[in-house]
Design a protein that fits this description.
277 residues, seven-stranded mixed barrel, M1 Pyruvate Kinase, Domain 3
Length: 277
C-alpha cells in the first residue's frame, strides 16, 4: 500500500518536446505517446558522416554546430519508432525537403562541409564526438572524445530527459544575465514545479519512479550532465558560455535528469506528476 509520502505531488507537465532528427531543432507537442524505447518519433533519425560512420552531433560544434540551423518535423504521426512516417527538414534558407530525397543529403553535405546522409538506421556500435570546453569542473577540458550511444538508438544517455521549472529558476538566480530557456536544454518533458519547490529538486529523484497522468511511469536513472550544446546560438538566443559555466559551478553540470520507461503511456500537457515510489 502506498504511503502518503509516496503520493507526494511534484507538479504538472508544462511542455512536451520531441526531436525527430538528432541535434536539429524539434517540435513542441500538446500530447505524446511514450513507449518502452522512449517518446514515439524522438531521435528517430540522425545525420551520419559517410566517411567515418560517426553520428553527427552538435556536441562537437565546430564540425556539426550548423545542425542547430535546421528544424525537423514529422509530416504524419509516427506509428512506431522508425521511419514508418515521413519527416521533413527545414534548411537555414527556408527550403523544406523530405527525408528520402537525395537532394536533402546533398544540401546537408553542403551545409556541413562534408559528405553526410540522413538515416533512421542506427550503425552498430554508434559513436558521437563530444567537445569538452575549458570550463573548470568538467571531467575533461579542451579535448574531443568519442562517446558510445545506447545500442540501437540515437540517444545520448537514456530514452527520456526530464527537467523542472524549479531548476531553470535556480540557474537564473545564479546568473541573471543568462537566458535559461527550455530550448537550450532539449528536454522531452518539462514539469512546472509546485510553487514551494525550489532549487535543483531533480537531484533527489534519482532511483525513484514517477507517475505522469493515468498510465505513464518513469524510472529516474541519473542526472543529465550538460555540454557545450547548451551554450550555442539558436534563433534569437545568443552564444553564451555562462550557461554551462553556471550549471557546472552550481550543480556539477547537471540540468534535469534521465529516465527510462517503467510503464508506457500517453502524456499530455497539464498532466499531474507524482512520486510512484
Amino acid at each position: 500500500m502506498m504511503t502518503e509520502s509516496q503520493h507526494t505531488g511534484i507538479g504538472t507537465i508544462a511542455a512536451i518536446w520531441r526531436y525527430p532528427v538528432k541535434s536539429m531543432m524539434g517540435e513542441e507537442m500538446t500530447a505524446a505517446d511514450i513507449t518502452a524505447r522512449g517518446m514515439l518519433g524522438d531521435r528517430a533519425y540522425a545525420v551520419i558522416d559517410s566517411l567515418t560512420g560517426t553520428v553527427a552531433s552538435a556536441k562537437h560544434p565546430r564540425k556539426w554546430g550548423r545542425l542547430f540551423d535546421c528544424r525537423a518535423q514529422w509530416t504524419l504521426a509516427p506509428l512506431q519508432n522508425d521511419a514508418s512516417a515521413p519527416i521533413r527538414v527545414m534548411l537555414p534558407d527556408g527550403r523544406t525537403i523530405s527525408a528520402g530525397n537525395a537532394e536533402l543529403d546533398a544540401q546537408l553535405s553542403l551545409l556541413l562541409g562534408r559528405d553526410v546522409h540522413l538515416t533512421s538506421v542506427t550503425p552498430a556500435g554508434a559513436t558521437l564526438e563530444q567537445y569538452w570546453t575549458d570550463i573548470p569542473g568538467q571531467a575533461r577540458q579542451n579535448e574531443v572524445t568519442h562517446e558510445t550511444m545506447p545500442e540501437g538508438t540515437f540517444f545520448d544517455g537514456a530514452p527520456i530527459h526530464v527537467m523542472t521549472t524549479a531548476t531553470l529558476d535556480a540557474l537564473r538566480r545564479e546568473y541573471p544575465a543568462g537566458r535559461f530557456e527550455i530550448r537550450r536544454f532539449r528536454p522531452n518533458l518539462v514539469i512546472a514545479s509546485q510553487t514551494e519547490k525550489t532549487g535543483f529538486i531533480e537531484n533527489a529523484w534519482v532511483g525513484r519512479t514517477v507517475t505522469i497522468g493515468n498510465d505513464l511511469i518513469l524510472k529516474i536513472t541519473g542526472p543529465c550532465a550538460r555540454c557545450v550544446m547548451t551554450t550555442l546560438p539558436q534563433g534569437d538566443l545568443p552564444e553564451d558560455p555562462g550557461i554551462l559555466r553556471t550549471a557546472v559551478k552550481h550543480n556539477q553540470s547537471a540540468v534535469g535528469v534521465y529516465a527510462t520507461v517503467a510503464r508506457p503511456g500517453r502524456v499530455r500537457r497539464g498532466d499531474q506528476v507524482v512520486f510512484a515510489s
